[in-house]
Amino acid sequence: MPDLFLILGAHVLLKVRRGSTNPTDEDIQFCANLAAFYSDARTENNALVTLAEVKHIQKPRGAPLGAVKLRQELGSHVGHPNDVPQECKDARSESGFGSDEAGKRSQGGKAKGKKRYEDNLLRQRRKREKRSQHNSDDESPNFYNE
């Protein structure tokens, strides 16, 4: 079975018709810049972007929105989020999905599934506390059974 990678982030599809010329390095760089700009790495100077053919991408059942599995990679490219055209930056800020310097939503919009996400975090925290409490009980000497 081939290696599968779980990828989260922005996806950009470059449509290449049969019989047409292959995309140039400039085309691939533009797509990498767009993917980096629309991902959580938009506040970074450089972001690593994975390239793959569409036939090697699939969405896992029950995975969160935007998560995909890659059966085969074409390679990686470095995207520069700051190098996208100004019209993309303007469109993003007008759409209500603008972000501040820290990458947080500036419009205060409610993220989908936020309550479920917070519930899962709370469940995991309780599980860790219970595990650490159980481990500390095992390590403590038992003076009553001697």
Q: Which structural class should the secondary elements be placed in?
A: alpha+beta
* Terminal-residue CA separation: 55 Å
Instruction: Tell the overall outline.
Output: elongated
Biggest sheet record: 3 strands, antiparallel
- Oligomeric state: single chain
Number of domains: 2
> Which strand order do you get reading across the main beta sheet?
1-4-3
Average of pLDDT: 76
Please provide the ordered H/E string of secondary-structure elements: EHEEEEHH
* Low-pLDDT segments: 1-6, 100-109
Work out the number of β strands.
5
Number of helices: 3
Gyration radius (Cα, Å) is 22 Å
Portion in strands: 5-15%
Kindly state the percentage of residues in helix.
25-40%
Please sum up the structure shown.
This protein has helices at 25-37, 86-94, 114-139, and strands at residues 5-7, 47-51, 57-58, 68-70, 75-79.
Written overview of the protein:
The relative contact order is 0.14. The protein folds into two domains: 103 residues, no CATH class; 27 residues. The N terminus is likely disordered. It has 146 residues and is α+β, with helices and mostly antiparallel strands. It is built from three helices and five strands, in the order E-H-E-E-E-E-H-H. The strands form two sheets. Strands 1-4-3 form a three-stranded antiparallel beta sheet, with no helix packed on it. The protein has a two-stranded antiparallel sheet with strand order 2-5. 33% of the residues lie in helices and 12% in strands.
